[in-house]
């Protein structure tokens, strides 16, 4: 029996551009911000990354779905993308780890997608015009007039100004016990955290306490954690004032801090820097970043549409009283700030994803750097709190008087 031919579908961008193709995944309509990801592998990790909430993701790799899907590689409990754009979906799944097809998961998750379009042309357009609102229409919605479809796209919410943390964060606190030699605990603010991040923290000896994004600074400090971690996540950092003030309070309590992606942007704001929206963002697993302290170039995994506005190649003073700050990493493609390092408080962050579940693993050392920072801080605190040993000369003098 011949396979059924997918129904027609159309991708509509808010500037009126239209690309006709075939339905892929669920049929219907979806609206979101159109972005592209340049990773040649790791589509499952991309789809299940909560940072993609509200976005229609285009894969620049032409052939998608050949290794299927499995439960082990899920970065969260579900697929988060608002829509999916591919050129050639695989007709056959061939991998010993596969448990089901990508198409099956897209249908089960209600993700409306499109295939069979020139993804290279769409990517070049987004690189020139910038990320923009878009819609995918298939099934009955493909029959809507061009004007109706465009109006639906333009009535969608823009990513700038959106606070999406509540949509992706855990609703209840939970814990992941340390799997390495225990060194303490880390409070993780879940703004869209990935499973592999939690696993890497546990492997470094942390009892990982994952907290909902509604938690207060007072509740975090009551836990007396060895450190604080802010995760990746979707949305505009400029719309997360609560999390910025929370971070300032905990930093003033001298708790060591590490943030990635959204956590880097929030550290930037907490220190007094601004943030801004990138034209089309960095998304993929092949972004070159330089570590200023070593001069080493790392190939890194990114997923961000906003960045911190901080000066390169100089030490700045925090406008919020946290001392000296330097840009520790920046992107070699466009000089975008990719990391911050505080010189007077125990805090640092990076804009990219050091867990890199789909690879590469150049930035895994950052988890070790975090562990070492916490250990050094713990040792310093213990030394300060230890009682002073009696002075030997005073004992000798006392003994002489008694004799």
Spell out the blueprint of helices and strands.
Layout: E1 8-13, E2 18-25, E3 29-37, H1 43-47, E4 55-59, E5 63-64, E6 83-85, E7 88-89, H2 102-108, E8 112-115, H3 119-129, E9 132-138, H4 146-154, H5 165-168, E10 174-176, E11 184-189, H6 195-203, E12 206-211, H7 217-222, E13 227-230, H8 241-252, E14 257-260, H9 262-271, E15 274-291, E16 296-309, E17 315-317, E18 324-331, E19 337-342, E20 347-350, H10 365-385, H11 392-402
Parallel strand pairs: 3-4, 4-6, 5-7, 6-8, 11-12, 11-13, 13-14, 14-20
Antiparallel strand pairs: 1-2, 1-9, 2-8, 3-9, 10-12, 15-16, 15-18, 17-18, 18-19, 19-20
Q: Count helical runs.
A: 11
CATH hierarchy: architecture of the largest domain: 3-Layer(aba) Sandwich
Distance between the termini: 109 Å
Strand segment tally: 20
Subunit structure: Composed of two chains; the small (or glutamine) chain promotes the hydrolysis of glutamine to ammonia, which is used by the large (or ammonia) chain to synthesize carbamoyl phosphate. Tetramer of heterodimers (alpha,beta)4.
Catalytic activity: L-glutamine + H2O = L-glutamate + NH4(+); hydrogencarbonate + L-glutamine + 2 ATP + H2O = carbamoyl phosphate + L-glutamate + 2 ADP + phosphate + 2 H(+)
Organism: Orlajensenia leifsoniae
Protein name: Carbamoyl phosphate synthase small chain
């Amino acid at each position: 029996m011949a396979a059924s031919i997918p129904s027609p579908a159309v991708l509509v961008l808010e500037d009126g551009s239209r690309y006709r193709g075939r339905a892929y995944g669920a049929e219907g309509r979806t609206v979101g911000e159109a972005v592209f990801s340049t990773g040649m592998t790791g589509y499952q990790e991309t789809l299940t990354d909560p940072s993609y909430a509200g976005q229609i993701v285009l894969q620049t790799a032409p052939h998608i779905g050949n290794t299927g899907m499995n439960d082990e590689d899920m970065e969260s409990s579900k697929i988060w993308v608002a829509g999916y754009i591919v050129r050639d979906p695989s007709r056959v799944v061939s991998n010993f780890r596969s448990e089901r097809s990508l198409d099956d998961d897209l249908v089960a998750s209600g993700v409306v997608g499109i295939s069979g379009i020139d993804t290279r042309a769409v990517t070049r357009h987004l690189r020139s015009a910038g990320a923009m609102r878009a819609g995918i229409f298939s099934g009955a919605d493909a029959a809507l007039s061009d004007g109706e479809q465009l109006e639906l796209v333009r009535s969608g919410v823009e990513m700038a100004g959106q606070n999406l943390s509540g949509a992706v964060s855990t609703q209840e606190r939970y814990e992941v016990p340390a799997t390495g030699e225990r060194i303490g605990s880390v409070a993780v603010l879940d703004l869209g955290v990935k499973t592999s991040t939690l696993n890497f923290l546990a492997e470094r000896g942390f009892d990982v306490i994952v907290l909902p994004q509604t938690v207060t600074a007072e509740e975090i400090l009551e836990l007396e954690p060895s450190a604080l971690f802010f995760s990746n996540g979707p949305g505009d950092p400029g719309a997360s004032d609560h999390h910025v003030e929370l971070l300032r309070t905990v930093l003033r309590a001298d708790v060591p801090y590490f943030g990635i992606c959204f956590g880097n942007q929030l550290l930037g704001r907490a220190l007094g820097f601004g943030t801004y929206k990138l034209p089309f963002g960095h998304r993929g697993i092949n972004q070159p970043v330089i570590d200023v302290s070593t001069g080493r170039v790392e190939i890194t995994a990114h997923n961000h549409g906003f960045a911190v506005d901080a000066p390169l190649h100089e030490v700045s003073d925090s406008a919020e009283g946290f001392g000296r700050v330097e840009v520790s990493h920046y992107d070699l493609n466009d000089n975008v700030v990719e990391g911050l390092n505080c010189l007077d408080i125990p805090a640092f962050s990076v804009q990219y994803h050091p867990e890199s579940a789909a690879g590469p693993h150049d930035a895994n050392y950052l988890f070790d750097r975090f562990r070492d920072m916490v250990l050094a801080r713990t040792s310093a605190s213990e030394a300060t709190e230890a009682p002073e040993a009696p002075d030997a000369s005073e004992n000798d003098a006392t003994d002489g008087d008694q004799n």
